[in-house]
Amino acid sequence: MNKYIANVLADVKAKNADQPEFLQAVEEVLTTLAPVIEANPAYQANAILERIVEPERTIIFRVPWIDDKGIVRVNRGYRVQFNSAIGPYKGGLRFDPSVNLSVLKFLGFEQVFKNSLTTLPMGGGKGGSDFNPKVSPHTPGKRCSDREVMRFCQSFMTELFRHIGADTDVPAGDMNVGGREIGYLFGQYRKIANEFTGVLTGKGLSFGGSLVRPEATGYGDVYFAANMLAMRGDTLEGKRCVVSGSGNVATYAAEKLMQLGAKVLTLSDRSGAIYAKDGITPKMLKDVMRLKTVARGELADFAKKTKAVKFFKGANSWQLADKVDCAFPCARQNELNGKDAAYLLKHGCTLVGEGANMPSTPDAIAAFAKAKIMFSPGKASNAGGVATSGLEMSQNSERLSWTAEEVDTKLKGIMKAIHDNAWNAAEKYGHKGDYVMGANIAGFTKVADAMLAQGI
User: Fold this and answer.
1) pTM higher than 0.85
2) Which of 65, 356, 357, 379 has the highest count of CB atoms within 10 angstroms of its CB?
3) Three-state DSSP class for residue 76
4) Which residues are known to be catalytic?
């Protein structure tokens, strides 16, 4: 390993020993940067790596709120403003018990390079809370009510609002933060700040949202996969695909795969996974979407009413199908491990397109690299969501609304540009076809050059 990179990694590990997700993300990026570091001595001379692994600002705050029984609850809120060298901080808010500083630093670090790859002027950040809207604090087996979610969001924004702004930091949604939550957050920001600006993305269409934003991450993941296949003269037509997750990313990736002629075999959630030997149909997919967004139920409930699918309690999507062409991990970090990778490769998988953030473990990535299959890291292939958030920011700034066709065309163009930038960067530094190295180098150099230009 390059000595400079090794020293920086050792220092990061010493300072952040209790943050495994963050350390994993940093190591994954830095270990691919040796060619560009050696070709550009100014990066080491100006301590770019030491600076780029340290957030510009980390904010932690309490979030007190009152549940429907009148009991005061207290959660912890965060905003990690990682890097603003190329634009205002941009990144989602996640509400989940798994949220902690390590997870948000990993997500914010990844977001810096993802946003750089989009070609849009956006820095990287991430935030959220350990609040869980899926579990009622007072009634076992129930979810938080809409009013409880509203009160939590209002309290969360009452502290967050002082740290964000349309030209400072523009949060969006992420896990368990959808249109409902964004609406409550925006309403509270507007009330406190007394201004109507594009301070949040993922808003409703009636108050500044963009068409295609809910679909964008999943669609973008599939567009990136189509670009990878095109480099080998192939398409998604007829491909047997396994997809994990059942939220926006997974369901819209499945929808786009179907539109392009692929067969989607699986979806999953915390209750388990469903497998359809002959493929999930568009009607079945719409039913899953309705279950998740309206009834807020689980796939176990869906499987009881649908004879064409089999439900596997507690399972993931990776070891169910007897033949797989493409895999799309769209659920959460580290969901696809080395054993899963071995199964996929044994059963014919030649493409993995990450829709989630860091969903593949290091041993899985190593297995895919050894097999020389097409593998796209999340920072490249799931950048469609934040890219469309950037387009929403542009529409808000201009007080305009673009048609779905206009946004989708721009999204396709952005995903093609991300693919080509990653491909070209890998080829330039002697690693043709390595999308991990290409994406890391392309994302890094833009941010690093901006940091150099702006001084220390």
Assistant:
1) yes
2) 379
3) strand
4) 126
